[in-house]
Specification:
The chain is elongated and about 80 Å long. The strands form three sheets. Strands 8-7-6-5-4-3-10-9 form an eight-stranded parallel sheet. Strands 11-12-13-14-15 form a five-stranded mixed sheet, sandwiched between helices. A two-stranded antiparallel ribbon has the order 1-2. The chain has 14 helices and 15 strands. The chain is α/β, with parallel strands linked by helices. A hairpin with a 2-residue loop joins strand 1 and strand 2. Helix 1 crosses helix 2 and helix 10 packs across helix 12. The protein has two domains: about 240 residues, TIM Barrel (Alpha-Beta Barrel), CATH 3.20.20; about 120 residues, Sulfite Reductase Hemoprotein, domain 1 (2-Layer Sandwich). The structure holds iron/sulfur cluster. Iron/sulfur cluster binds next to helix 11. Iron/sulfur cluster (SF4) binds next to helix 11.
Length: about 400
């Protein structure tokens, strides 16, 4: 585990952010907030995919009215995203949102900011100061350019207004679409304040580039102990954002695994099956089930079960058959076209009975059958199916 920076705690509608609480996943709806049913449907899907806090735009009074209808039915706390009009922040507070996000770059009048902070203070509703490199206050941009110092100065100026009305129920983000600028800004901010930080690379774009950029920025900071809540900003279905956020936290060991972790070998000269299509079929068959286990799809029985022996469950291909293994131990041999169905069946068995329980159901002859297939393939392919050693020899001769 990485040592996390100590921050204050902020309560977002019952979800704690900061002060060592589990790092949370956020996302944002893409529906019109005034469309209550569509927005609620998306919020439920986001919550199922792992989002623990969801933001909705509050861009007009119809949206604020929508929020008033959505908030009581939402399964997760809602944050109202406010730009330009401070009155919409007040309307969102009336709607009962759990948090506001204010952009200091486009709500700039001190009196307006203080009015919102006072209302939020009186209702014990936190505010995220959401600085964005693309919409900095022109004065700050003129003075500091688009830089880490500018982003942090913008947040500090907002904090100063909040302080004047005794409001400090705050989280902060300093997002940029440039990963290096984003990382530098959060590092600087983290050195200057102890408010919880909401991490994100803004406008990261569509996957896979957007996923790479967002992961590069967010993971770098999390590895330094910086960050209390995260959001992937992808040009994609927001469900992808929630899934990516959850997966990142799980892969860094910052959250318990809640869903499937599918791993697959990259395939090579030994592969006895099209690993990509089997992995895709397995992902489709298992992906939507809440199975908190690691499942491996391996291209060959020669190395597959050994290479993936840490996985709870796996399948390796060989001689038109699939060898199912649990923690590296072969439990069943099935025809190739039944590999995915067998994976689903055994994944459910492991979830229900645990690894030890599932191992008790192992087919007694499976290990011997598997060993025979393995030996036959080794005989056919030799030890060096990828012809690596021949290439090494060639290199050595140069
Ligand atoms: S040796 Fe087998 S398991 Fe390993 S990458 Fe090649 S096909 Fe996959």
């Amino acid at each position: 585990m990485f040592e996390r920076r100590i921050t204050r705690s902020v309560d977002v509608g019952g979800v704690q952010v900061g002060a060592g609480s589990p790092i949370t996943v956020q996302s944002m709806t893409t529906t019109k907030t005034a469309d209550v049913d569509a927005t609620l449907e998306q919020i439920y899907s986001l919550a199922t995919a792992g989002a623990e806090i969801v933001r909705c735009t509050c861009n007009d009074f119809d949206a604020a009215e929508g929020l008033a209808r959505i908030v009581p039915r939402s399964p997760v706390p809602l944050v109202a995203d406010i730009h330009f009009q401070y009155r919409l922040a007040l309307a969102a507070l009336d709607a009962g949102v759990a948090c506001l996000r204010l952009n200091p770059g486009n709500i700039r009048k001190a009196e307006h900011i203080k009015t919102v902070a006072t209302e939020a203070r009186d209702r014990a509703v936190p505010i995220r100061i959401g600085v964005n490199a693309g919409s900095l206050d022109p004065q700050i941009e003129e003075k500091y350019g688009i830089s880490a110092v500018a982003l942090v100065e913008s947040a500090k100026r907002e904090l100063g207004y909040f302080e004047q009305v005794g409001f400090d129920n705050v989280k902060i983000s300093v997002k940029a679409s440039d990963v290096k600028l984003m990382v530098d800004s959060y590092r600087l901010l983290s050195d200057s304040v102890d408010f919880p930080l909401h991490l994100g690379v803004t406008e990261a774009g569509p996957p896979p580039g957007g996923l790479v950029k967002a992961t590069a920025g967010i993971a770098t900071l999390l590895n330094e102990g910086i960050g209390d809540t995260i959001r992937y900003s992808l040009t994609a279905d927001p469900i992808e954002e929630a899934r990516a956020g959850r997966q990142l936290l799980e892969s860094l060991g910052l959250r318990e695994r809640s869903g499937l972790d599918l791993i697959a070998c990259p395939s090579c000269g030994r592969a006895e099956v099209d690993v990509i299509s089997v992995a895709a079929a397995a992902q489709e068959a298992l992906g939507d089930r809440e199975l908190p286990i690691q499942v491996a799809v391996m291209g060959c029985v020669v190395n597959g079960p050994g290479e993936a022996k840490g996985a709870d469950l796996g399948i390796a291909a060989g001689k038109k058959r699939g060898h199912l293994f649990v923690r590296g131990e072969v439990v069943k041999v099935v025809p190739e076209d039944e590999m995915v169905d067998a994976l689903v069946e055994w994944a459910e068995k492991i979830v229900e009975e645990g690894v030890d329980g599932a191992l008790k159901s192992a087919d007694k002859s499976a290990a011997a059958e598997a060993e025979a297939d393995r030996a036959e393939l080794l005989e056919l392919q030799g030890e060096d199916a990828n012809k690596s050693e021949a290439l090494v020899e060639l290199i050595r001769k140069r």
